[in-house]
Amino acid sequence: QVQLVESGGGLVQPGGSLRLSCTASGFTFSSSSMGWYQQAPGKQREVVAFTTIGGTTTYADFVKGRFTVSRDNAKNTLYLQMYTLKPEDTAVYYCKKFGLPTGWGQGTQVTVSS
Predict the structure, then answer these.
(1) pLDDT at 26
(2) pLDDT tens per residue across span 73-85
(3) What are the pLDDT digits (tens) for 49-81?
(4) CB 45 within 8 A of CB 101
(5) Residue 97 near residue 34 (C-beta atoms within 8 A)
(6) Per-residue buried b or exposed e for 35-63, using 16+ beta carbons within 10 Å of the residue's own CB
(7) How far is it, in rounded angstroms, from Cα 28 to Cα 25?
(8) Burial 86-107 (b: 16+ CB within 10 A, else e)
(9) Dist CA 8 CA 19 (whole Å)
(10) What's the half-sphere exposure (Cβ side, CA atoms, 13 Å) at 11?
């Protein structure tokens, strides 16, 4: 079955950087579009960025120019490089597999605070 495991979250100061990773198993990673979502306290989960099978990337307006999504098909891993982090980026970040069967990871906490 689809298994996704996120890592790389933590506490970072405003203006800092983090790189999240999502290691996938149980499906053909290279044939799947993948994405990152965030869920802040009291808010709905929303898409941050996603990448298609062909490598096309799309970003939410609030992260454009600051976040970069990428994938390493040889390692079955999805990445989210986050720069210039802001307190409003504080959230649990989830990895998602698009298409059927879909799947979510357990999430990794990112806290941006001084």
Answers:
(1) 95
(2) 999 999 999 999 9
(3) 999 998 899 999 999 999 999 999 999 999 999
(4) no
(5) yes
(6) bbbbeeeeeebeebbbbebeeeeebeeeb
(7) 8
(8) eeebbbbbbbbbeeeeebebeb
(9) 6
(10) 2
